[in-house]
Amino acid sequence: MPIKNRPLGSSLTKSQLQTLQKGTMAYTYRGVETQKNPFDWALYPMLLWSEKPATIIEIGSKSGGSALWMADMMRTFGVPADIHSVDINPVGIGAIPGVTFHRGNARKLSEVFGRSFFHRLARPLLVIEDSDHTAKTTGAVLDFFDPWLRAGEYLVVEDGIVTDMGDADMYQGGPLAAIERFLEKRGDDYEVDEKYCDWFGTNLTWNVNGFLKRIR
Question: What is the pTM for the complete model shown?
Answer without folding.
Answer: 0.97
